[in-house]
Design goal:
By secondary structure, the chain is of the alpha+beta class. It contains three helices and three strands. The protein has a three-stranded mixed β-sheet, sandwiched between helices.
Length: 85
């Protein structure tokens, strides 16, 4: 299902569970399924694209630990079925 906020934040849609990190320092990092990588790179809105193969959790944790934010804002849908991270 297409998430309309992706048009504003990403500029395109993705197939797999993904995370898009925007930091106060201007970093733009996308953690996306490996098959979504080329599409995200083609649009050019994210300087760093981290593709995953088996699941988003490990790569997302690694990127968040590296960025080390003091606060995190999360956009999520209460109507999507729950997923385990």
């Amino acid at each position: 299902m297409h998430d309309p906020s992706l048009d504003l934040v990403v500029g395109t849609n993705v197939t797999w569970p993904s995370a898009f990190l925007l930091t106060r320092h201007g970093d733009r990092i996308a953690v996306v399924g490996s098959l979504d990588k080329a599409n995200i790179e083609m649009h050019g809105n994210y300087r760093e694209v981290c593709p995953y193969v088996e699941g988003v959790s490990e790569d997302l944790r690694r990127v968040v630990a590296r960025v080390a934010p003091r606060r995190i804002a999360i956009d999520f849908s209460t109507s999507d079925p729950p997923r385990t991270a």
